[in-house]
Specification:
The complex is a heterodimer. By secondary structure, chain A is mainly alpha-helical. Chain A has helices at residues 2-5, 7-25, 28-59, 62-68, 83-120, 151-156, 159-174, 177-190, 195-217, 220-234, 251-260, 269-318, 321-327, 331-336; strands at 128-131, 138-141, 146-150. Chain A is elongated. The two termini of chain A are 44 Å apart. Chain B is built from five helices and three strands. Chain B is extended and about 50 Å long. The chains are: A mainly alpha, B mainly alpha.
């Protein structure tokens, strides 16, 4: 039972390790939703299992036991779980939940701020907004469904590469890429083992948008050149080298290589790995939840039966005249009940 | 030759024309826009799209010669817009603790990446990195099929 509880944790770890290889073996349009959903499932399952273990520790508390109506010694088959493990699980569950909520609050706050800021830019047509900034930048604002491109970026690129850039950003919006990225990032906030998955999803949506842009422009090399020119133009600003995640470094070269190489062979069976990991952890979480629920009901029933027995004993005592007198009831009324 | 493009998404051409006008930063005639886009577009297509953008209020036009010259509404030197752009960039560059809600076109580069990208541009395009961006070049010579 204890080892069953480790399955979601194990699955999260495996998914984290497998994310890169899976991404390389799947088409981006399949990899992004698959990885994001698998990350959500394993993350949720891990959270549920940790909460269950923490609950068991809590259930040993006499006050909680009285409120819940089960014996204070804890729930029976779960006594196997060492107390230290249960405590660690409870603390971990709390920390991870706070981390996930913190991420969610930060993300919503950032989204709203970006959306508001975007609303202040002069609106042009078809979701394109041009910021007057000289620094080359291009991004999408999901909540508003807008593409923001700086004037510096537009000046940097020749016409065909501009077209590739706009097609890339448009693909982000049309395929709801932000949703996949956010889902995976939330899963990673709730379960650090899944951080590599979030990173791969972020890269995957870029590859996906590159692919769609290449299809629209008709030549992957134009997209690659746009990417190269934009990246080189955007670096060389002092603030950019200050704080960045090291993981982002290789993304551009991966994307350029994907654009220049001929389409790699995709192996759909790789998807089965992610599905299996997600299903296994979900099944374990459901199984353990149902188990615990059953155990709680059994313990409550046992507890109630024990109470009823004790009540019978008490009624026997209550019939004694001396006790009845001390308690100021008539032995008759107790008998009537 | 590479396969023919699949064709633009809805609104793609309007966006491209807006981007073209923004890059130029000066009024352009439909002919100039067409030459700049360099995509075998019909003159009437460019013309129609420009008038549609004008009807939407995205571009302004002034008589020039026999026709009109079009310009992006809201000049690039709008102070408040600059502030806003700064703020959005701050969201982008906020560092690792940010949720990363905005997906950027470009990420940061390692020195090896930089070298590789420079080589790519040197191989395939006339405009190498660091050379001055020139918005006015139409019909960029394409690399031959590899």
């Amino acid at each position: 039972m204890i080892f069953l509880g480790l399955v979601p944790v194990l699955c999260s770890g495996l998914l984290g390790l497998a994310a890169g290889p899976l991404r390389r073996r799947l088409a981006p349009s399949a990899a992004a939703p698959l990885l994001a959903l698998a990350a959500l499932a394993t993350s949720l399952a891990t959270g549920v299992v940790l909460c269950l273990a923490g609950f068991l520790e809590l259930a040993r508390n006499p006050l909680v036991a009285v409120l819940g109506g089960w014996p204070a010694a804890g729930l029976r088959p779960w006594r196997l779980l060492p107390a230290t493990w249960a405590t660690v699980a409870g603390v971990a569950a709390t920390v991870l939940l706070v981390s996930a909520l913190g991420f969610l609050a930060q993300a919503i706050c950032d989204l709203v701020r970006a959306s508001r800021a975007c609303g202040r830019l002069a609106g042009t047509a078809h979701r394109l907004r041009i910021s007057p900034d000289e620094h080359p930048a291009a991004f999408t604002v999901p909540l508003r469904g807008a593409i923001v491109v700086s004037a510096g970026m537009l000046r940097l690129l020749p016409a065909d590469e501009r077209r590739a850039l706009l097609a890339h950003e448009d693909a982000h919006l049309r395929r709801f890429h932000a949703g996949y990225v956010m889902a995976a990032a939330l899963a990673a906030a709730a379960n650090p083992l899944l951080r590599p998955v979030a990173r791969e999803v972020r890269l995957t949506v870029e590859l996906w948008a590159d692919q769609l842009a290449a299809r629209e422009v008709g030549d992957g090399r134009v997209v690659a050149r746009a990417l190269a020119r934009a990246s080189l133009g955007a670096t060389g600003r002092p603030e950019r080298s200050a704080v960045r995640l090291a993981a982002a470094d290789t993304d551009v070269s991966t994307r350029v290589r994907a654009l220049l190489s001929c389409a790699p062979r995709f192996r759909p069976w790789a998807a089965a790995v992610a599905v299996a990991l997600a299903l296994a952890s979900a099944a374990v979480a459901v199984r353990l939840t149902v188990d615990l629920h059953d155990q709680v009901e059994i313990a409550q029933a046992d507890s109630a039966r024990a109470l009823a027995l004790r009540a019978d004993d008490l009624r026997g005592y209550a019939l004694w005249p001396a006790v009845a007198e001390a308690g100021r009831w008539t032995s008759l009324r107790v008998t009537a009940r | 030759m590479p396969p023919r493009p699949r064709g633009r998404q809805r609104g793609g051409l309007e966006r491209e024309i807006l981007a073209c006008l923004a890059a130029a930063g000066r009024p352009m005639s439909p002919g100039e826009v067409r030459a700049e886009l360099g995509d075998q577009l019909a003159y009437t297509t460019v013309m129609t799209t420009l008038s549609r953008l004008h009807a939407k209020g995205a571009v302004s036009r002034a008589p020039a010669g026999r026709g009109f010259a079009y310009e992006l509404v809201g000049g690039p030197a709008d102070a408040q817009a600059s502030m806003t752009a700064r703020r959005m960039l701050a969201l982008l560059h906020g560092g690792g603790d940010r949720a990363g809600v905005l997906s950027r076109f470009v990420a940061d580069l390692s020195p090896e990446d930089e070298q590789m990208l420079s080589d790519l541009l040197a191989d395939s395009g006339p405009a190498g990195p660091g050379s001055s961006p020139h918005p006015g070049h139409d019909g960029e010579p394409r690399p031959g099929p590899a």
